């Protein structure tokens, strides 16, 4: 097995795809794929290509194993609505990536159904690939608002880490004065981010599902739909203790 880190850079991804071609790899599993010049050509080469946790950026019907990003966004919105939290802001990195786009779409669609105009939900974003830095710098947008959101939904946990740090440095108490939600349920959260509410798929589900999907493809019984793994919430004590608003 060869293991590579693309750093979400298209040129590096293509470099490694060429390397896999030269090694006659039986399959390539891509976690967090980005659009790149070689990606579509590589898929058409006949080599098994399986996308994990972020659907293919250039083809809707590619093999995929991971979270249902749209439904996860819907479920975050449902949980916020159940707790009467409607003053919401969104921090995101690039929306060129399928996971972020679907998470945001699910969140906004459900809030819109509940009567919250998506145009009334402020967004904060700065360019960059480092989610810690993007979250940190983006948080300033909300800190500068006359009435800042009291719920900060970050489209990844790493964005939330940066945003929380910036709120602390501004002299706020992020635990008492706001609620942070993230995506991915990073295994480090219970250790370093007890304040963060997050939704994700338990990490130990990915390996068996990936291997099972590869075997199905090789035995000419490929999945005809995305293989969605069940996601779950990890909620902090403060959010669990908050009362549900009357409907």
UniProtKB/TrEMBL annotation:
Short name of one Pfam family: Peripla_BP_4
Domain of life: Bacteria
Keywords: DNA-binding, Repressor, Transcription, Transcription regulation
InterPro entries attached to this UniProt entry: Peripla_BP_I, SBP_2_dom
Residue intervals of the Periplasmic binding protein domain: 11-187
Name of the protein in its database record: Substrate-binding domain-containing protein
